[in-house]
Amino acid sequence: MLSWIAALLTGILTAHLAQRLCFPYFWKDALYLMKVIRYGARLEIYKRTSLIVTIVDRFVQQAQRFPEKPFVIFEGVTYTYGDLEARSNRVARLFQDTVKKGDTVALLMNNEPDFISVWFGFCKLGCALAFLNTNIKSRSLLHCFNCCGAKQLVVGADLLDNLEDILPSLQEDNITVWSLGHGNSHPGVHSLLDKIEKSSQEPIAAKRRSISCLKTPTLYIFTSGTTGLPKAAVITHLQSLKAAGGFWAYGGTEKDVIYTPLPLYHSAASLVGIGGTIELGATCILKKKFSASQFWNDCRKYNVTIFQYIGELCRYLCNQPMGENEKDHKVHMGVGNGLRQDVWREFLQRFGEIRMCEIYGSTEGNLCFMNHIGKIGAVGRSNFFYKLIFKYDLVKYDLLRDEPVRDHNGFCQRVQKGETGLLLSKICSQSPFFGYAGSKQLTEKKILRDVFVKGDAYFNTGDLMAEDENNFISFKDRVGDTFRWKGENVATTEVTEILGLVDFIQEASVYGVQVPGNEGRAGMAAVIVRPECTFDGKKLFDLVVRELPSYARPLFIRLQESIETTSTFKHQKFGLVESGFNPSTISDPLYFLDYTEKSYIPLTSSIYASISNGQKKV
After folding, report:
1. Helix residue ranges per DSSP H, 281-427
2. What is the largest CA-CA distance in the chain?
3. PANTHER family from the xrefs (predicted)?
4. How many whole angstroms separate alpha carbon 583 and alpha carbon 512?
5. Are residues 470 and 400 in the same domain?
6. What beta strand segments (E) does 201-318 contain?
7. What is the DSSP letter of 44?
8. CATH of the domain at 468
9. CATH number of the domain that 552 lies in?
10. Of the segments 221-225, 322-326, 375-379, 497-501, which one has the largest average pLDDT value?
């Protein structure tokens, strides 16, 4: 008997050691996969029955469960679940006879509690919301309305002046503009705050917001892409519910306090941040704008346990002067994307063993990776079972031709383990792609067909990734006409169109270049000056500052006699990207965007050196 027990124990120990040696992540993978399946089963029940529970339904449930619990804390003021439930009811009551179920309402606001009140208020009427990026300018803003078909616009009082140039056009298109202010300083703009405060807070019948299909659009979130102007990514109730499970999948609970300094018009803050807070029944510290100097003080003041980030945010924190007690806080988790390996290591060294949880996924995409292991440098981890659920592949990509490599049969070729390839995600019932509002052509451009067999279809992420022998997935770069700078996607075609507005530019090719010490790529433009003209740095500076958000303005200009193109007359940017902006290796004249001089000034070797060593901030 004793020998049998000894043999059993020896077998168990041997199996345990073998598992630790051969499958070191087995239990973490199993736990994570169980959560994914559990959450997915809930969504599947919604699909197959009429018991669909949306994000707003979850919010109403939480408000009934603990109405006095803090939901949002903004600039020191606490708003409970009950407060924002009542406030959103007032918005719904005010517009119940003005809008119809299925209408789209545009929202142009900075971070504040009423962003959520207006969002949920219109959702309670069965409307979809279009979140407008507060950085976009007049031409792009008008384009957004054409995409989503919104006939109502709610604008924050502090952003009303941004509409001055396009108000006549909005009114011609019968778009009603509401300002979240008390006064009315612009003709044709209706004040909203006083009307909300006088409105009833009685709930609207749940039937008004009910849906019969999870694939019904609930949001339009605008994303820059390869087409130039902003694209309205269709966000369905299914996608919003999936995003709201992020904190929960990483182990978040209702006791957590979540710090959200990212803009709510982005899916990270609205879907993952606010949606995730609601799913947990937690509390959100909402910042109007990220401040590196206030970050840790806020975390200590409000007992923050989880914060949201993009890679740049963490770098800004690491660049702050060293302070006392930098590890004196209750933060145990960061959730976000784009964290560079060197910044990741420095962040942990300075601020303590915080679990950094990378999430990979685009606003409109049909695939998500989560780095549930916490491996530095990885955006996610896969395994045999994960691949059964989510069908994705990495395929060979030709950077010179700017297209996937296909074999003699016309099919794409998978890369080997460890090799970099273009990430594609199969479009199927489990992973649908809902595309963009306003144009089937834009949607079709993101789909690759006949990838491995005739008739299949894959979502083209536009991202170059690699998967190592241990199934960790890492981000390498973006392809095509889009690059990321300051946490934003920059569409080169849109920037090119703006540069073309200046009279002395004949042709321009916009691309991104790496700048030492910075995530992403900074904007640079190769420019041909018209023969009869000369380069005017002051005029070009005035144009880009007036027409482009700060992150999209080219930092560097390269004057060229001609721009290399492909056989199909596309700009050949690979060589330009590789050569960078070093004046000692580039014979062409180079210029730098200088805000002090309010002009593009010659890029000298000393300026280049100060940028490269971090003395001059970009």
Report:
1. 295-301, 311-319, 341-351, 384-389
2. 100
3. LONG-CHAIN FATTY ACID TRANSPORT PROTEIN, LONG-CHAIN FATTY ACID TRANSPORT PROTEIN 6
4. 17
5. yes
6. 217-223, 231-236, 257-260, 283-286, 306-310
7. H
8. 2.30.38.10
9. 3.30.300.30
10. 375-379
